[in-house]
Write a structure and sequence with these properties.
Layout: E1 4-10, H1 22-25, H2 30-44, E2 46-52, H3 56-65, E3 72-76, H4 85-94, E4 98-102, E5 124-127, H5 132-150
Parallel strand pairs: 1-2, 1-3, 3-4, 4-5
The structure holds ligand CA2.
Ligand CA2 binds at residues 13-14, 16-17, 19-21, 25, 76, 78-79, 81, 102-104, 106, 113.
């Protein structure tokens, strides 16, 4: 069977990871996170398409374009998590399993970060464990794909 691909999307300013605010975001760079995801995906038999953009429109275009290309999406939408109904709508439209990731625990931070539009459509949310969250999200999607393939007609499958 062909390898399932997971689209891993990173929103605005995540290209700065590891360069500033290490007390909040740690010292890992986005390139480090990508490398760890590649290794974990290979171990799980998955392929990944890892991307970052500072543009809301580009993130939405990538979500729309992935409909027939990926089996699931992992997204850290950065600041757009708290503002973007449009990105949420794109995720609803594409109808793929979504795992949301945040490097920091957004509930320990400013009140304006406590709402995430992405959480409203995500299958699961992992936050506060740094770059490890992306790897755990890959594990969750791999488990989801395995369960879905065993019981494709079960409407109550997780
Ligand atoms: O904790 C997360 O992963 C966030 O999605 C990171 C976003 C923030 O707006 C969210 O509330 C939570 C910020 C992106 C990273 O911004 C940086 C800025 C300076 C240095 C390093 C990263």
């Amino acid at each position: 069977m062909a390898q399932s691909t997971v689209l891993i999307l990173n929103g605005p300013n995540l290209n700065l990871l590891g360069t500033r605010e290490p007390h909040i975001y740690g010292r890992e760079t986005l390139a480090d996170v990508e490398q760890a995801c590649r290794a974990r995906a290979a171990a799980l038999g998955l392929a990944i398409d890892f991307r970052q953009s500072n543009s809301e429109g580009e993130l939405i275009d990538w979500v729309q374009q992935t409909r027939t290309k990926a089996a699931g999406i992992i997204i850290n939408a950065g600041g757009y998590s708290h503002t973007s109904v449009a990105l949420m709508d794109a995720l609803i439209a594409v109808d793929l399993p979504v795992m949301e990731v945040h490097i920091s625990n957004i509930h320990r931070r400013d009140a304006f970060r406590h709402l995430s539009y992405i959480s409203k459509v995500a299958k699961g949310v992992i936050m506060g464990v740094g770059g490890l969250g992306y790897e755990l999200a890959l594990e969750a999607l791999a488990r989801h794909f395995a369960q879905a393939s065993q019981s494709p007609d079960n409407p109550y499958r997780p």
